[in-house]
Design brief:
Gyrase A, domain 2, 10 strands, 4 domains, elongated, four-stranded antiparallel sheet, 15 helices
């Protein structure tokens, strides 16, 4: 257990620069490590390494590999059968994954969907339930025909409209929650069951019976922000950064990560680190010019008569002045009594 004095920082300590360096230096190691681990990329479940770090610091609206960890109420978390039922309600199944092919009859304005019986059994779907969901999702009349296949009446004989409906049918969701992805039951070390899903859509998942709405985790920062608020998004950002580094066997003190997460969420929204976020909102002209689009910032400053008060680190280094941190933050005045007597 760390003591309080272990976390004290000296006055004038350049904590921002140290935090940036603490994350920037390991980032170069991840570049090298990614180069040597090329063959392993296909087996990764979620984006990891440097691409994930960049994704987080750039505050991407949607992660390239969204995931959800869904915890269940006590009566469900200790029973695999019940947990599996919940997973099937959540798991997103699209029509394209449970059919063999589609046959279009343009002269009659009908579409025949040939189902894959094995794929249907694997996800516990029936032709009747699929037909009902298609009627609702696509807005057509779908009925179960011969041999358990689905016959769809499009109510039009226009070739373009029939083909458009065919495309919609292929992409239509016939079971589960849109955006949730495939869900599976996982058992933790304590023997309790929870659900992991290869997608992110928190709001409808919270309404599913058996799900504990207070215990849903997603690596999607903006989904967390929308549902649980900015503090939860801040914690998720810090946790994801730490987890990504730990997966690469890189150790960074959590204080540096916390400072970066705090800076990105301090104004109540999630900002990126770059010119469209934290750097772009700096008051200093030189600090903005030192990062990107140098000429643009200098021309705008000259045109509009902007003033740089030189209070930060970057701008002072740029013009060769002493930075207002460390020993540069101290101002000494010596009062010499003897000189007054003379």
């Amino acid at each position: 257990m760390a003591k309080d004095h272990d976390y004290n920082v000296q006055a004038g300590e350049p904590v921002g620069v140290i935090a940036a360096q603490s994350l920037g230096e390991p980032g170069t190691q991840m570049v090298l490590r990614t180069f040597h681990m090329t063959g392993m990329a296909a087996t990764a479940i979620a984006t990891s390494g440097l691409p994930r770090i960049i994704e987080l610091l750039d505050a991407k609206k949607m992660p390239s590999s969204p995931i959800m960890r869904i915890y269940l109420k006590e009566s469900y978390s200790k029973n695999f059968a019940k947990a599996d039922e919940v997973a099937k309600k959540i798991s997103e199944i699209k029509m394209g994954s449970v059919m063999r092919r589609i046959v279009e009859n343009f002269s009659k304005g009908k579409i025949l969907v040939l189902l894959n019986s094995q794929a249907m059994q694997a996800v516990d779907l029936t032709a009747r339930s699929v037909a009902a969901r298609l009627s609702k999702e696509v807005g057509v009349t779908a009925k179960v025909g011969e041999h358990g296949n689905i016959v769809i009446n499009t109510h039009t004989k226009n070739l373009k409209e029939v083909r458009g409906i065919t495309v919609k049918i292929t992409k239509a969701i016939v079971n589960g929650i849109e955006g949730a992805g495939r869900a599976m039951v996982v058992q933790d070390r304590n023997g309790e069951f929870y659900i992991e899903s290869a997608g992110s859509n928190i709001e409808p998942v919270m309404q599913v019976e058996g799900v504990d709405p207070a215990k849903i985790y997603t690596n999607d920062l903006f989904a967390t922000y929308r549902v649980f608020g900015i503090e939860a998004a801040r914690n998720t950002l810090a946790l994801e950064l730490m987890k990504t580094l730990e997966d690469q066997d890189i150790s960074v003190n959590d204080r540096h990560i916390s400072l970066i997460a705090d800076a990105m969420t301090a104004d109540g929204t999630i900002q990126s680190i770059g010119r469209h976020g934290l750097v772009g909102k700096k008051e200093s002209v030189f600090a903005k010019a030192a990062f990107e689009e140098t000429v643009k910032h200098l021309i705008n400053a000259a045109a509009f008569g902007q003033i740089d008060h030189m209070r930060g680190v970057t701008e002072n280094i740029l013009v060769g002045k002493q930075i207002p941190l460390g020993t540069g933050s101290v101002r000494l005045a010596i009062k010499n009594k003897e000189s007054k007597k003379k």
